[in-house]
Amino acid sequence: MTDIAIAARVDRLARSGLFKLLGEGHREKVVDLALGVPGAPLTPPKLIETACAALREGINQYELPDGNVELRRRIAAALPTPTDPLTELTITVGSSEALSAAVLATVNPGDEVIVFEPFYENFLSAIALAGGVPRLVRVVAPDWRYDLAELRAAFGPRTKAVVLCTPNNPTGHMLTPQEFAEIAELCDHWNAIVISDEIYAGYVYDGKQHVSAAGVPALRERSIVIGSLSKSHAVSGWRIGYLRACATLSSAVRRVHEAICGGGAAPLQEAAARAAATEPDFLKPGMDLSVQRNLVTQIFDEVGFRCIPPDGGCYVMADIRHFTDEDGESMAYRVVREAGVMVAPGTFFYSDDVAGARLVRVAFNRQLETLIEAERRLSVYRPDAHTRSSR
């Protein structure tokens, strides 16, 4: 068996350190603030009821590969940019499949794809599957903005796409109209497209406003926008994502989507369509997470971290230099073992171990009682000698 050849692309896939960390967490009951699996909002009861009804009614066979037509109509009507649900919107198996289908449909082997760092690790995996070459452009705390000169230098004749996430995972930064204008100008010059992960678009704080790539006139015909119900409706296991693009791009992506999976789960799409039909605002996020964001920032600041409040999304990036001399990964393993609180090391979101070594990511899409329990555990936690005594 050792002589069996494994495709080279497998070695280029991102290796998630979160799963190894989860092994530590399973040793006891921990407060998980590492993963983005939503504890808040709660799954809408109506959604569960309509799913059960759809199953009992026999809606158990294939759906159209492009997705449930009524659900597409409902999602299109809720988007900030006019969208034809029949030719410009596709229901996918979560946002991860949407991402892979988008990259596979537009990137050839050897093409370069620009990614801002820190990044959601599946971005690199999707590029690897297509045989693309990532070109990383680092953004820097505390505002998490790119350097325009560095971004310009990353573009070239082999640039095919820019993969974005706004609001960003893990930083929480939201791209501004000015940043989008700069990106659009470069994409136009080099004939590149934007693939924009906007699954956290419903979570925006401090009076800011989310800008969608599809809402930028210069990007409307050269953007693929990805959305999902996973976080906003706490149905990450349902795998209901969607993809918005012009008809030409949608047609190409749909061919890949159909080849990959043939379409999403019919009864779950039907359930979402029925629930959306009964409530005009159903497709908006089930709750505002501002209280959770502020509470997590307060908790970790008081412990000795230095939090960088996000513009949007459901994660806080925290600087650990005032808390410990350890690197973030060592600290995360120790804190989950000794305090029963799990956070994600910053190194999981960087291409090298040094860049994110002094950062951790904290997820706050949790019920308040979960965050209060984390606060209780951390308040009585006494770190070992690695911790700075001067914090």
Write down the secondary-structure element order: HHEHHEHEHEHEHEEEHHHEEHEEEH
Q: In the CATH hierarchy, what is the architecture of the largest domain at level 2?
A: 3-Layer(aba) Sandwich
Distance between the termini: 54 Å
CA radius of gyration is 21 Å
Across the major sheet, the strand order is 2-8-7-6-5-3-4
CATH superfamily of the largest domain: Type I PLP-dependent aspartate aminotransferase-like (Major domain)
Beta content comes to: 15-25%
The geometry reads as globular
Mean pLDDT: 93
Q: Would you identify the regions where 5 or more consecutive residues have pLDDT less than 50?
A: none
Query: The CATH topology of the largest domain, please?
Result: Aspartate Aminotransferase, domain 2
Instruction: Work out the number of β strands.
Output: 13
Instruction: Supply the number of helical segments.
Output: 13
Highest CATH level, the class of the largest domain: Alpha Beta
Structural class call reads alpha/beta
| Biggest sheet details | 7 strands, mixed
Helix content: 25-40%
Number of separate structural domains: 2
What layout of secondary structure does this protein have?
Blueprint: H1 8-11, H2 17-25, E1 31-32, H3 45-56, H4 69-78, E2 89-93, H5 94-106, E3 112-117, H6 122-129, E4 133-138, H7 148-154, E5 159-165, H8 177-190, E6 193-197, E7 223-228, E8 240-245, H9 247-261, H10 266-278, H11 290-303, E9 306-308, E10 315-319, H12 328-338, E11 341-342, E12 344-345, E13 359-363, H13 368-379
Parallel strand pairs: 1-11, 3-4, 3-5, 5-6, 6-7
Antiparallel strand pairs: 2-8, 7-8, 9-10, 10-13, 12-13
Helix pairs in contact: 3-10, 4-10, 5-6, 5-9, 11-13
